[in-house]
Amino acid sequence: MREQWSSRIGFILSSAGAAIGLGAIWKFPYMTGMNGGGAFFLLFILFTLIIGLPLLIAEFIIGRGAQKEAISAYQKLAPNSGWSGIGYWGVAGAFILLSFYGVVGGWVLIYSFLSLFGSVITDNADYQQLFASITGDPLIAISGLGLFLITSVTIVSFGIKDGIEKASKVMMPLLFIFFIVLVIRSVTFDGAAEGLVFFLQPDFSQITAEGMLYALGQSFFALAVGFSVMVTYSSYLGKDVSLPFSAGSVSIMNIFVSLLAGLAIFPVVFSFDLEPTDGPGLLFMVLPEAFAQMPFGEVFLSLFLLLFLFAIFTSAFSMLEIMTAAVTAKRNYSRIKVTWTAGLIVFIAGVPAALSSSALADFTIFGLTVFDASDFLVSNMLLPGGCLLITLFIGLKMDRRLMKQEFSYGNNLTGGSFQLWFQVMRWLVPITIVIVFLNSLGII
Length: 444
Description:
CATH class: Mainly Alpha
Oligomer: single chain
Number of domains: 1
Helix content: over 70%
CATH topology: Hydantoin permease
Structural class: mainly alpha
CATH architecture: Orthogonal Bundle
């Protein structure tokens, strides 16, 4: 008998944990900083609610409707067809994502250890040099990747209830508590108002076609849709849980965390005359400099790094789970052996990304390092492509009666609500994805 989540809250927290990770805490702040602040945030919210939320509901419906993990779900719902390719697309995408995601997880893990021992904020510290020494040392970068994956694999190997759900029930509430503490401290700085205006006041003159694509990709990345990881998660769910309600809860929590990330970071950046456009290094070079200038700065930096670490781990669990479930569903292999094998393969695949700032710094793919190329491929190609394929599956292939049943279980929503969701998935979502993508390429 397949495992199931022990409770609705366990499923929601685990799903939110899968969604809330690098996208919300690492990528969102620097993408917002580089794309106009408040206007990007507003576009992100709109894309999340209009495009991301319906897609999340769709993945939940596919998973629970089939009661199978990603690959088997499409095979069951559309037997003897090529639609199962969506599941393979998702597993491959999650594999590539985790291979560079784990590199950042390793950086955060190392920073967390250093911060807990008071070794990040020091007299005359050079935070750019510290970041360069961690990312540019092959042994440190690879060790961080390995430690991050070992921890993730250990938890996932215990299964859904005893591994992923238990960890998420601890990590997610702590994440919110730590975040709120940091926000309260951040908004009380002199000069914080300028950062709040930058983050919350839209300036649409700063938005470009590329920025719109990034906002759309951010909504996919932040909700973990497109790679069918939520198909796998919802396959362990009972029929008494409302899928629209659960998807809405995850989406709102994700927007809330993104809001907290902006409120925690931008007031600090502007209060200390730092640059909000510093890109991926924003959290590793800019924030330590800011924390160093405040009382108990090391304590607040440690809190931030720990909440960041919790968020990255809970997302990594979902990526490992889709790979593990895909193999164990086809073969009667030990879950523990499959999870550890998957972790080892991801580690090997992640080494080139880990070396992108050192031994492989001069090796580029279309002008990008292995790390940046992997990020671009996932965020701007594979995720939107996966989302488009899922919308086509919903609109063209999946049985509408089954969809309506799954949409209606556990709630009192009317048939009109289902029709609205279905038409959005059938028309608005795919058209939006295609228009924004073609616009970013300069085709339209």
